[in-house]
Structure formats: structure tokens, C-alpha cells
TrEMBL record:
<dbReference type="GO" id="GO:0031640">
    <property type="term" value="P:killing of cells of another organism"/>
</dbReference>
<keyword id="KW-0732">Signal</keyword>
<dbReference type="InterPro" id="IPR023346">
    <property type="entry name" value="Lysozyme-like_dom_sf"/>
</dbReference>
<protein>
    <recommendedName>
        <fullName>lysozyme</fullName>
        <ecNumber>3.2.1.17</ecNumber>
    </recommendedName>
</protein>
<feature type="signal peptide">
    <location>
        <begin position="1"/>
        <end position="19"/>
    </location>
</feature>
<dbReference type="GO" id="GO:0042742">
    <property type="term" value="P:defense response to bacterium"/>
</dbReference>
<dbReference type="Pfam" id="PF00062">
    <property type="entry name" value="Lys"/>
</dbReference>
<dbReference type="InterPro" id="IPR001916">
    <property type="entry name" value="Glyco_hydro_22"/>
</dbReference>
<dbReference type="GO" id="GO:0003796">
    <property type="term" value="F:lysozyme activity"/>
</dbReference>
<keyword id="KW-0081">Bacteriolytic enzyme</keyword>
<keyword id="KW-1015">Disulfide bond</keyword>
<comment type="similarity">
    <text>Belongs to the glycosyl hydrolase 22 family.</text>
</comment>
<keyword id="KW-0929">Antimicrobial</keyword>
């Protein structure tokens, strides 16, 4: 009975958590080759994602006061930019359920971030970027072929 229960729990986890942990080089390559990110800005994107989520698409962090959570590779915020689907108030600026920002298809995540960069005129919306990435250069991705 015990082993059977453990096996079925593992199976459920494997099916429901469709996520991915990128390496810096892998993310840079995918952003540039598949999602239209400017090669000259790839280091900004990868640094931001690394700082926000350590490159884990399934990262979810609950913010202080529990009024919102941040989702996925770029930690998209449930109060402003996606719908958590649990009744908490949201402006849902990027018009997606937050769960869309936890899967392995990062195209919609990139589109949301592109929108936020346009709206904010840069990366100022990201605490992680402001704290750790504002002075990074392409040397951040030294050794990557992207
Ligand atoms: Ca996604």
C-alpha cells in the first residue's frame, strides 16, 4: 500500500508540473532565436530572469502581505499583470491566467515582458533587474553561443 501511494503521487507530480530550469546560455539562445529578443539585449533578459527566478519556469513567490504573487521565469505579478484565478484583485495587464507563466512555452511570458518594457520605458518595473542587472553587459553571457 505504501509504495503504491508514493508511486502515484510521483506520477501526478510529473504530469502536472510541466516546467523547466534553463541555463543562462540556453535561455539566451531561445530568446534570440525563437522569441524575437534583440541579441544586444539578451544579457538584460537573462540577468533579469536569473535574478527573479533562478531561471525556473515554475517559480512562484508570494509577496509580503499576501495580496499578490509572482509567477514564472520573469516573476510576472498577479496584481498587475496576470490573473491568479483565486479571486484576488487583478488588473491583468497582460491578459493571461498566471498559470500560463509557469509552463515551458515562454513565448507568452516574453510578450508580457515586452509589453511591460514598452509601458514602463525600460526595466524599471523589475526589482530584480534594478537591484542586480542595471550595469550588466554582454560579458554576462560570455561563453554562450547565441
Ligand atoms: Ca508560458
Amino acid at each position: 500500500m505504501g509504495p503504491t501511494v508514493i508511486l502515484s503521487l510521483l506520477a501526478v507530480t510529473a504530469v502536472t508540473v510541466d516546467g523547466k530550469i534553463y541555463t543562462k546560455c540556453e535561455l539566451a539562445t531561445e530568446l534570440v532565436s525563437q522569441h524575437g529578443v534583440n541579441r544586444n539585449e539578451a544579457h538584460d533578459w537573462v540577468c533579469m530572469a536569473f535574478t527573479e527566478s533562478t531561471l525556473n519556469t515554475t517559480a512562484v513567490n508570494i509577496n509580503r502581505g499576501r495580496t499578490s504573487s509572482d509567477y514564472g521565469l520573469f516573476q510576472i505579478n498577479s496584481k498587475w499583470n496576470c490573473d491568479p484565478g483565486d479571486g484576488r484583485k487583478t488588473y491583468n495587464g497582460c491578459q493571461h491566467p498566471c498559470s500560463d507563466y509557469l509552463n515551458t512555452d515562454i513565448g507568452d511570458d516574453v510578450q508580457c515582458i515586452q509589453q511591460l518594457r514598452r509601458e514602463h520605458g525600460g526595466w524599471g518595473f523589475s526589482y530584480g533587474y534594478r537591484a542586480k542587472c542595471s550595469s550588466v553587459t554582454s560579458s554576462y553571457l560570455n561563453g554562450c553561443n547565441y
